[in-house]
Amino acid sequence: MTRRCGIAAFHKVQINANYATIWRRQSQPAMKVRSLLALTITVALVPVVVFFAAPLSRLVEAERDAGVRTMQEAARATSLAVDAQWYEVIGLVRATSNSSKLESNQMAAFGGKARSLVQGRSSYLVLFDHEGQQLINTSMSTDAALPDTRAVSGARIASVLAADKPVISNLLRAPGAGRHVVALEFPVHLPENRNYVMSYGFDAALLAQALPPPAPGRAVFRIYDREGRLIQSNRLPTGAGSQAPAPIAAAIQAGDAGLIRTGDGTYTVLARSALTGWWIAMSETTEKVDGTTERTVLLSGLGLALALALAIATAWALSDRIAKAIAQTSAAARALGAGAGGPPQRSGIDELDHLEESVYQANRLLTEAALERERLLVQTQQAREVADAQNRAKDEFLAMLGHELRNPMAPISMAAHMLSLPNLDAAKLRHAGQVIGRQVEHMNRLVNDLLDVSRVTRGLISLERKPLRIQSIIASAIEQASSIVEAGRHELVVETGKQPLWISGDAIRLVQVLTNLLVNAVKYSPPDTRIVMRAGADGDTLVLSVADNGTGIEPDLLPRIFDLFSQGARRPDRAAGGLGLGLALVRKIVELHGGTVTASSEGAGKGSCFTIRLPMCDAPVETQLA
After folding, report:
1. How distant is the alpha carbon of residue 25 from its chain centre?
2. In sequence order, which residues have a C-beta less than 8 Å from that of residue 257 and are 6 or more positions away?
3. Pairwise CA distance, residues 138 & 140, whole Å
4. Which residues are bridge partners to 598 per DSSP?
5. Rounded distance, CA 297 to CA 299, Å?
6. Residue of 279, 292, 201, 203 lying closest to 247 (CA atoms)
7. What is the pLDDT of residues 164-195, one digit of tens each?
8. Longest dimension (CA), the chain
């Protein structure tokens, strides 16, 4: 009874839910697909249109700012060109002021030199004494009497001498000539408290050389002095001496270098020269400055209108096709509901025909994509860690290489200096030669190690294999490393047994391997310690080891001891130098011989042991017969 009540209650709830769903559907206003798409596009495009104005406004401002910056840079470049012309004048006047004729007070001779200087230059030179009296004036004839200019020029000359630096004038009108000039007044201080001011003036029209050449449609450049008077322009007539237009004059007075609209259809920017205090004005037409901006606005508006038209046309076409497909699917669904449905008919839209399959495929693809992203992320992280490690190894290697190549320089330099000393006795000469020889040998070992590593890593090394008795290889290695072992006062113990042990290999490379292991043991062992080299057979394998009781190997370094550039901690005196290549070469050469090399250590300060295992071979026939 209870179960039946429960089932009845369940069906009642289900029926009520179905009725509630039907009621909600019936109570909501129905919309066609075409209307829904139109509403969707409208809702999507309205914010685009509304917010289109803000970035467009910023774009317009950016375009204008770019144009203004270009004009300002051109004005500053022209200002630098004008300054460069003045620097040439300053250099010319400074060179003239250093004349020996002036220093020796030979005024007549100096006057002749001054006249030859200004000849053909459209310029003049006047020499004032400290009171402002003219002593030389190249614009007057040599026999003309110079006027008394102390009252007129005395204060100006005194201020130039007090400032003790070149002073560049505003625009001046040359007396009696009717032409505009500019002048440089240069203080000259000579012994015996003789002070002069050399005034060098030239035609203001010469400043046109620093301005860009005039051309129709190009910008206009003008030079204004500190009072706002026009000095020169690259457009004829220049109008030299005229006052700047009111907007430009106001900007000059305020020190404003921003964009100025002059009212005659042009924009102007100013650049002030720190040397002269003059102003360079560059003017462009408003069409050139605002034309790009206006075109940008027009093109953007056309693009937006085109996008809207395409969106509406696309929505209309899609809505018609979707409406027909939905109507066909709806008819098929009604037919299935009535029990008269047959095989499914294609609606022409795959999304409606394969909805379930699409969802499944989408889910599968998303899962695979997530896994792929995770895999790529892991690979990227690993690659980054490898790249960082390689970069650190490269930096450490370059630092070590620089240090190891620099170390021999000091002894070589000292020995070379000793050789340059006079009366050097034979003992010191021999000592200097020995120092140079040792350091050159050290550098040669470094370079050879680098070359060997390069050949091995690129697979360019080849082995000349032949049967070798390991005892002879050990003897050769000890001979090569004997000087280093003796220098460190180490006791070298060799245990090879009396039975000959034969391997097939390259004698030179195997000697190099053992020598590197011996040198490594010496580097990381304190003086007066023992180094033991053992060789023996383990079945068909030769086991060769080099053990020391030196500094040992840190546990974190042990797994990568044979990697390139790996080194143990150095002592403060850097006695254990090198580039960290020796053990890497050992492993590569041993592997080329078909063997293995391992390192073991109980920790720092407990020594280390390097063990090589190589396949053995039979003794040569001639040795067996003997």
Report:
1. 64
2. 72, 251, 269, 270, 271, 272
3. 5
4. 611
5. 6
6. 279
7. 999 999 999 876 656 899 999 999 999 888 99
8. 146
